[in-house]
From TrEMBL:
Keyword hit for RNA-binding: yes
Family annotation (SUPFAM superfamilies): Alpha-L RNA-binding motif, Pseudouridine synthase
InterPro entries (alphabetical): PsdUridine_s_RsuA/RluB/E/F_cat (IPR042092), PsdUridine_synth_cat_dom_sf (IPR020103), PsdUridine_synth_RsuA/RluA (IPR006145), PsdUridine_synth_RsuA/RluB/E/F (IPR000748), PsdUridine_synth_RsuA/RluB_CS (IPR018496), RsuA_PseudoU_synthase (IPR050343), S4_RNA-bd (IPR002942), S4_RNA-bd_sf (IPR036986)
Family statement: Belongs to the pseudouridine synthase RsuA family.
UniProt record, GO biological process: enzyme-directed rRNA pseudouridine synthesis
UniProt keyword annotation of Isomerase present: yes
EC annotation from Swiss-Prot or TrEMBL: 5.4.99.-
PROSITE patterns on file: PSI_RSU, S4
Annotated RNA-binding S4 domain residues: 2-62
Protein's name in the database: Pseudouridine synthase
């Protein structure tokens, strides 16, 4: 059970004060009954709530899949750069979702956003070994020696030894390679720093998979959609 004004506020219908005025005018019904007290307790999952005769859809959590664009910071606020939440429509932004982990400013691809803190914690915890798969361009050739280094776990510039990962070679030439990288962590610039430890440089990076969720290739960079019920169930099974 939750207060009516809290439910409506969470859905973006105004501040508690504004909602109190709306309710007092008799513009809100719950299960067909006009309510004048915005502090009344209701069950938002079972009750039929209408404002000015229009039924509203209640949901506590929002789960979004974004194809992150270059130049956007994976944060809810930044003093200097636009953030991924700046790309959200008002009806989604009102839930105050936050990125699950992060992608670097110049990295594109799959980014999940949600206001479900418990799920976020499970997905980013290294102990759960949630795979994150990246497609990358490298400025040099890669080989089996590099693959073995990933399998052992690469020590990056600050002395941290990354968990064992996987490096798949799609194409390798002397001055250019295409690869797939699978890691289980999300350290700052991790993929780039792993290749730097091998004296190579990442020149393009795109996340294409997070756990069981694949990037929706129908989404242009900067676009997003809600996760399907099936995708949410699979994520929550982790």
């Amino acid at each position: 059970m939750e207060r009516l004004d809290k439910v409506l506020s969470n859905l973006g219908y105004g501040s508690r004060k504004e909602i109190k005025a709306i309710v007092k005018k008799g513009n809100v019904t719950v299960d067909g009954v006009i309510l004048k007290d915005s502090s009344v307790q209701i069950d938002p999952d079972k009750s039929v709530i209408e404002i000015n005769g229009e039924r509203i859809e209640y949901k506590k959590y929002v789960y979004l899949l974004m194809n992150k664009a270059d130049g956007y910071v994976s944060a809810t606020f930044d003093k200097f750069d636009p953030t991924v939440v700046d790309l959200l429509e008002p009806e989604d932004a009102v839930f105050n979702p936050f990125p699950v982990g992060r992608l670097d400013k110049d990295t594109v691809g799959l980014l999940l956003l949600t206001n479900d803190g418990e799920l976020n914690h499970r997905l980013i915890s290294p102990k759960n070994h949630v795979d994150k798969v990246y497609y990358a361009h490298i400025n040099k050739g890669v080989n089996e020696k590099d693959q073995r280094a990933f399998e052992r776990g690469i020590t990056i510039d600050d002395g941290y030894k990354c968990l064992p990962g996987k490096l798949e070679i799609i194409k390798s030439e002397e001055e250019f390679s295409e690869v797939l990288v699978t890691i289980h962590e999300g350290k700052f610039h991790q993929v780039k720093r792993m290749f730097e430890a091998l004296e190579k440089k990442v020149i393009y990076l795109k996340r294409i998979k997070f756990g069981p969720i694949d990037l929706d290739e129908e989404l242009e960079e900067g676009q997003y959609r809600e996760l399907t019920d099936e995708e949410i169930v699979v994520l929550k099974s982790i």
